Each structure stands twice: as C-alpha cells, then as structure tokens.
Amino acid sequence: MELSPAPVPAGRWADLPEDIAVAVASRLQEADVCALGGCSRSWRTACDADCVWERLFRCRWPAAAAEAAVASRVQGWKALYMNQHRRMAVAISNVVEFVGSSLNNGSLESEYYLKAIADLALIADIGFLDVQFFLFSRNHSAIINLIGLHYSISSLHVPPTEVSKALQACQVAGRKVCVNLLKLGRWFYGFRLRDEHESRKISLNELTMSEGAEVLAILNRGAVHEVFRLRVSLADMDK
C-alpha cells in the first residue's frame, strides 16, 4: 500500500525568514520580481527591498549607477529604477515614432534608417536590456526589430550570439526584412552604365550569423555607396 505524500503546510512560503526571501528575490529578473511580489504581503516586502532593485539597476544601467547611488538615499532604488525605465521608454518611443512617420508603403529610406540608429546612440545610458524591452517587441514591425538588432551589434558591441538568443526569447527571430538595393550605374568612357537592382530577403536571426554580416555592412554604409530601401515582407506582416 502506497502512502500519500504529507500535505505541504499552509503558508510555508510566506513563513520564510525575510533574509532568505530577499536572497531569493535578488536572484530574479525584473518581470519575475514583480510577479513574485504580487503573491503575498511578505513577498511584496522582500521584492521591494532596496538591495533587490539596486542589483537590477546596476546590471541594466551600470554607467548611471554611481550618480543614482547618491539619489537612492532619498528616493530608494526601486523608485529610481522605475523612473529610469520610464525615461528610456519615452526616449526610445520617440525613435519608434520617427521611423513610423518616415515609412513609405512599408519601406524605409537609408537616410531615415541610419538617423534612427544615430538617435538611439544619443540616448544616455541605453543598454541591451532596453533594446530587448522596447525594440524587440512583437508589437513593433520587423524594421524596428532590425534597428534594435543593428544598434546592439554595431553600437553596443553585443556579441551576435547573444543578440540571437534575445531575438528568440522575444519571439521575433524568424521575422524577415527585404533589403532593396539600387546601385547607380558608373560612368565608363563617357557612357553611364545601367543601374543595378538587387533584393535580399533575410530573417533577423540570419542577420546575427555570418551570412548576415554583408547585409549589415551594406546597411551601415547607407547611401554612400548604395541607395537602398527596407521593407517588411508581405508574408511576414501577419506574424
């Protein structure tokens, strides 16, 4: 005869010593800390601990941590984290809105694409987690995802393998963009050669691999050597 397992005493997790509960919360990421804090009053207390949010702040915005440490004596690290998160949301949303207003039938000219990259670089303290939060969202188009990908690799110098993992975690790795290139014909002995048109369709995940390096290099050069447009493939707009 098999014995049934002993029932777990009610309130066992809520009865954890505060230091242990804080230690558990200190090993979690933002979303998990917020979710755990909604489980009970004792967990909310543990998840609101200053040390929990100080670690999250320092991991996400290391360059801003020194200045924030002074302000934390008055506001607390959780309030500082939330304020910085909102500031990043507003700043990056301005870039997203600029791209949206610059689209022409789903296409983006090279000058606007590169301006979006440059505008991201002007945002103080922006990091890879900010890109994941605000640019790798499925609520945005693949072009916005691409801008976040390109900025992470070229400006933040995040290894492509890490960018690939983030794209997969955000469920946008399979999205595709179509890069249309127009190479203006060169002059040759007084005659102008024909313009060359080329179209390359590639997934965001492929752009983090060796075959995507050439495409990213073209995007980085912009209209200096080529004139190009970016457009989301019709087959991917329903995803």
TrEMBL record:
Q: Which residues cross the membrane?
A: none
Name all F-box domain ranges.
16-56
Q: Which SMART domains match?
A: FBOX
Source species, domain of life: Eukaryota
GO annotation, cellular component aspect: SCF ubiquitin ligase complex
Instruction: Return any one Pfam family short name.
Output: F-box-like
Q: Can you name the source organism?
A: Setaria italica (Foxtail millet)
Q: Which GO biological-process labels does this protein carry? A: protein polyubiquitination; SCF-dependent proteasomal ubiquitin-dependent protein catabolic process
Q: What is this protein called?
A: F-box domain-containing protein
